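User: Predict the structure for this protein chain, please.
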Amino acid sequence: MAACRFEVHHRVPRCLLGFFDRAASGELDGAGLQAWFEWEEEAFRYGLDPDISHGELATLIEDSTVEIPKEQHKASHSAAGDFAQWGRLGGLETLRRYGQPWFALLGKRRWGRVGTGALDHYRAELRAKTWAA
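Assistant: Here is the predicted structure, written as structure tokens:
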């Protein structure tokens, strides 16, 4: 029988520190308010008081670790919709950094409509624009 592999699971996820930091560093403008609302939503999702301090949050996260079997860990994140949420957040960050044309090229590359040369060409254009600014 194969050995059961265990993974460390955080009942209070580490990603909350990022939400907390973005909310705490934001100005009282549209982006800052959006960061605060996202922090509040995630805090309430895990049953936390949004007014918690950074140190208390870090301690809660560290104290919430448990070792569970790998398959159970994967299944718990899948059932909670975490993978979809994480993918969405990563996609939004990529969209913010590189823009709509990059996403369109990635889609075309995925379906074999353009080669890696098109991605390299666009990446070079992005670098030229960044250095010119």
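The chain has a mean pLDDT of 82.
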